[in-house]
């Protein structure tokens, strides 16, 4: 295993600064020589978030990969492999490669499948649990892999509480997938219940029975409906990755697969 070293103030690349990526980038500014992002093909909303977080734009993913000492991938789960391949291709044959932090909601199998793209243990498995963090106490960044401690040190004293799970790739992603069962798969039952009750014309008596037994059905349904309209499109792939995680553990996958389908309909 090769030794990795980071300069005192490394250049850190964020792919891509959505709400979470912007918060991660902002958190690292104090420790970094620069926090950069690739603006080619990105939306005005992404550019605005990066500007507000005071991140430095570079033209392309290739430029970012070749300048950065650390690259953090935080994107929709369905794009995670593509982003990793773009970074790996950009630095192939280069004298220096960045440490690649895979921080997306993907399965352990997806993470370990990316390891060959980053030789010498150059990939760190990461999982963010909590909202975009602008102050401490809300969000934990779980890390795993042979060089996870390097990333843990970068986040010391930031709003993200970085915690190390050990050297085995996939543990952070496994934790994220299991957590997502209760944070995203369980709430999807309200969407399924609502659709079934309306289709079968038992919506009113169901609401009455749930109210009689102390269940806040309207509140629970309204909460997940609002969030699903905003984020359901990206939760589809996350639930599919969670299903792959369950399958690898020998656990039935129907919970996550059903949630993915309900979010696909949102």
UniProtKB/TrEMBL annotation:
Residues 9-90 form the Putative oxidoreductase/dehydrogenase Rossmann-like domain. InterPro entries: 6-PGluconate_DH-like_C_sf, 6PGD_dom2, NAD(P)-bd_dom_sf, OxRdtase/DH_put_Rossmann_dom, Pgluconate_DH_NAD-bd_C. Pfam families: DUF1932 (PF09130), Rossmann-like (PF10727). Residues 197-265 form the Phosphogluconate dehydrogenase NAD-binding putative C-terminal domain. It comes from the Bacteria. This is NAD(P)-dependent oxidoreductase. It comes from Pseudonocardia xishanensis.
């Amino acid at each position: 295993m090769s030794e990795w070293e980071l300069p005192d103030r490394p250049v850190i690349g964020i792919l891509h600064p959505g709400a979470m990526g912007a918060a991660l980038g902002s958190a690292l500014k104090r420790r970094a020589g620069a926090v950069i992002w690739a603006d080619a093909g990105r939306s005005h909303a992404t550019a605005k978030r990066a500007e507000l977080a005071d991140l430095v734009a570079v033209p392309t993913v290739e430029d970012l990969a070749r300048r950065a000492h650390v690259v953090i991938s935080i994107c929709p789960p369905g794009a995670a492999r593509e982003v990793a391949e773009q970074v790996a291709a950009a630095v192939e044959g280069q004298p220096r490669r960045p440490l690649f932090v895979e921080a997306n909601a993907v399965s352990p199998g997806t993470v370990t499948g990316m390891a060959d793209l980053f030789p010498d243990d150059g990939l760190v498995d990461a999982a963010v649990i909590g909202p975009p963090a602008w102050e401490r106490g809300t969000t934990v960044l779980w890390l795993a892999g042979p060089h996870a401690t390097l990333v843990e040190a970068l986040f010391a004293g930031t709003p993200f509480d970085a915690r190390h799970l050990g050297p085995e790739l996939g543990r952070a992603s496994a934790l994220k997938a299991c957590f997502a069962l209760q944070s995203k798969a369980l709430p999807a039952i309200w969407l399924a219940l609502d659709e079934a009750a309306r289709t079968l014309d038992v919506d009113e008596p169901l609401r009455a029975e749930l109210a009689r037994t102390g269940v806040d059905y309207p509140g629970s349904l309204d909460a997940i409906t609002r969030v699903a309209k905003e984020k359901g499109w990206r939760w589809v792939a996350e639930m599919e990755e969670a299903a792959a995680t369950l399958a690898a553990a020998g656990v039935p996958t129907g919970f996550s697969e059903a949630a993915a389908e309900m979010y696909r309909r949102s």
